[in-house]
Amino acid sequence: MKSAADYSTQRVGIFVDVQNLYHSAKNLHHGRVNYNELIKYLVGGRQLIRSMAYVVKSEGIIPQAGADNRADSTERHATGSEASFFEALEKAGLELRTKDLQVYAGGMKKADWDVGMAVDAIRMSSFLDVVILVTGDGDFLPLVDYLKWGVGRLVEVAAFKRSASAKLQEAADKFTNIEDIPRIIIKK
Question: Rounded to an integer, what distance in angstroms lies between the CA atom of residue 75 and that of residue 64?
Answer without folding.
Answer: 7
